[in-house]
Specification:
The protein has 343 residues and is α/β, with parallel strands linked by helices. The protein is built from 5 helices and 13 strands. Strand 1 and strand 2 form a beta hairpin. The longest helix is centred in the last third of the chain and has 80 residues.
Length: 343
């Protein structure tokens, strides 16, 4: 009787524990499938309002974004965020994308970029910053982009200043387009040093064709084949040169800018003259000192030798008289003997 009751209790207990086991298995399965899976940033996760494909391309163009998209897959190789209203490229988020090779930021509201913006994008080969509101490119802004091949930075109406060393580290750069900005002067010292640069776009700027742009005009004249729309790359000033092509004025500016001497040239020659005068004066003084010392040395040496000469001179005449005294008798005798022989 007790055994029967115990068996019934056991039978009644089994259904009570069976759902718990199934729930446990479901929980374990969910953990394996979802709970320990990599974050969306490492797999197929995709930012809101963007489209991601199997080729690691993230397409966020024309989505009215006002901020850089978050939760981007870290393996992204192409990122297109054009035609939005993004005002800043956050270095922290952007530099997580170390495999990025293509970045299109055109037609946004970017106002500035710095060297830290692209600090970890060593594989980036294509960068488009066109149709933004950039005003200045700082020193070595693109320095970390050692693999950059093409840079498009056109149609920034306020862009009027590019630092001379902005492209100093971009030895792989082949195509640079800065057309239709507000540039008046461009220092080409770092550009002419780029070994494989083959295409440059300069048209549509307000170039000032004066001595500040002499090197630029001469470069366009010598290597016209490198310049896109070279025929539309014209001067905005001064008035007498307005509308003329930069390439046509290379040699003309060369002769115009070096035909006379400026105030700095005169100061330079004055400084050189002073240096030469000072050097000549010091040399003459040194030679004079050496001559005086040499003269004193010779005089002292002469004074030391004079007493010995006087002793020799005093002894010389006495010896000569004695010799004459002994010689005369022989001489007279000889004369007498000679006279005697004649007689």
């Amino acid at each position: 009787m007790n055994y029967t009751n115990l068996q019934g209790q056991v039978t009644n207990v089994k259904p009570h524990y069976q759902p718990s086991a199934q729930s446990l298995r479901l929980i374990i399965l969910l953990i394996l499938v979802m709970g320990v899976a990599p974050s969306p940033a490492l797999t197929a996760g995709c930012p809101a309002r963007c489209i991601c494909d199997d080729q690691l391309v993230v397409q966020c163009a024309g989505q009215h974004l006002t901020a850089f998209p978050t939760d981007l897959p870290l393996a992204t190789r192409q990122l297109i965020i054009s035609n939005n209203r993004i005002v800043e490229l956050p270095p922290l988020q952007l530099n997580y994308l170390s495999d990025l090779v293509y970045l299109d930021c055109s037609n946004n509201s970017l106002t500035e970029i710095s060297m830290s913006t692209f600090g970890n994008l060593e594989k980036l080969a294509y960068l488009d910053l066109s149709f933004n509101t950039l005003t200045r490119i700082e020193d070595r802004t693109f320095g970390p982009l050692s693999s950059l091949v093409m840079l498009r930075m056109t149609d920034n109406p306020g862009l009027s200043d590019i630092h001379p060393d902005a492209f100093a580290k971009n030895s792989a750069l082949q195509v640079l387009d800065v057309s239709r900005n507000n540039l008046t002067v461009l220092n080409i010292s770092s550009l002419i040093a780029l070994p494989i640069l083959r295409s440059v776009g300069l048209s549509g700027n307000s170039w000032s064709c004066d001595c500040d742009n002499e090197d630029l005009c001469l470069w366009v004249h010598i290597e016209a084949f490198k310049f896109q729309d070279e025929g539309q790359t014209v001067c905005r000033g001064p008035p007498d040169l307005q509308g003329q092509r930069l390439g046509e004025l290379g040699l003309q500016l060369r002769s115009r800018c070096h035909q006379g001497l400026g105030s700095w040239d005169y100061l330079f020659f004055l400084a050189i003259g002073f240096v030469i005068f000072a050097a000549g004066t010091m040399s003459a003084w040194a030679i004079g000192v050496v001559m005086v010392l040499y003269e004193r040395y010779v005089k002292k040496k002469s004074e030391q030798m004079d007493p010995d000469d006087e002793v020799e001179q005093d002894a010389g005449p006495g010896t000569g008289g004695a010799g004459g005294h002994h010689a005369n008798p022989r001489g007279n005798g000889d004369l007498k003997n000679t006279g005697h022989m004649v007689v």
